[in-house]
Amino acid sequence: MKLSRPVIFLLVIPVVASAALGALIFGGDAISDASSNVEADIQQALAKQVTTSSLFELRNLQEVQYGYGICGSYRAVGTQDGYASFFYDTVNHKVVRDVNAQAFTSNCSLSAICRDSG
After folding, report:
1. Residues 6+ apart with CB under 8 A from 82
2. Are 95 and 86 in contact, with CB atoms under 8 Å apart?
3. Which DSSP symbol is given to 97?
4. Which helix (H) or strand (E) holds 96?
5. Which H/E stretch holds residue 46?
6. What is the reported pTM?
7. What number is the average pLDDT over the span 34-47?
8. Mean pLDDT, the chain, integer
9. Of 23, 24, 117, 118, which one has the fewest beta carbons inside 10 Å?
């Protein structure tokens, strides 16, 4: 059966456009859910290094190295202490808290992390 032009314009194009729009909307939700999982991974890695059961407040998160690392700052929830900087390796799931370490200095620009102190 040969499709006529009105059938293509009235049926096929709207169905394809609706499917593309749905994929765009729900794909964006899936990506945002993945970023919240990264924050949970960072908090778990920090808790292992600091050996505490408290949660951490993350701030100034920046994706570096095309998503293979995240730079930012953290502090324990409920404390009045200042924020400390960190680099999180998303491949190995390790946190580097030493700002003089090579992994930190080669991936994180200190000026980018400390720009927002308020």
Report:
1. 75
2. yes
3. -
4. strand 94-96
5. helix 13-50
6. 0.61
7. 80
8. 78
9. 118
Q: Which residues of 68-100 are buried (b: 16+ CB within 10 A; e: fewer)?
A: ebbbbbbebeeeeeebbbbbbbbeeeebbeeee
Sheet with strand 84-89: strands edge to edge: 56-64, 69-76, 84-89, 94-96
What is the three-class DSSP state of 61? Answer: strand
Q: Tell me what the mean pLDDT of segment 4-16 comes to.
A: 75
Please give the Cα distance from 16 to 38 (Å, whole number).
Answer: 33
Query: At residue 19, what is the residue type?
Result: A
Q: Which residue has the tokens 């992994």?
A: 103
Token pair belonging to 22: 């749905």
CA 74 from centre of chain: 15
Residue 117 token pair:
């102190």
Question: DSSP states of 63-95 as a string?
Answer: EEGGGTEEEEEEEETT-----EEEEEETTTTEE
Inter-residue contact 113 to 71 (CB < 8 Å): yes
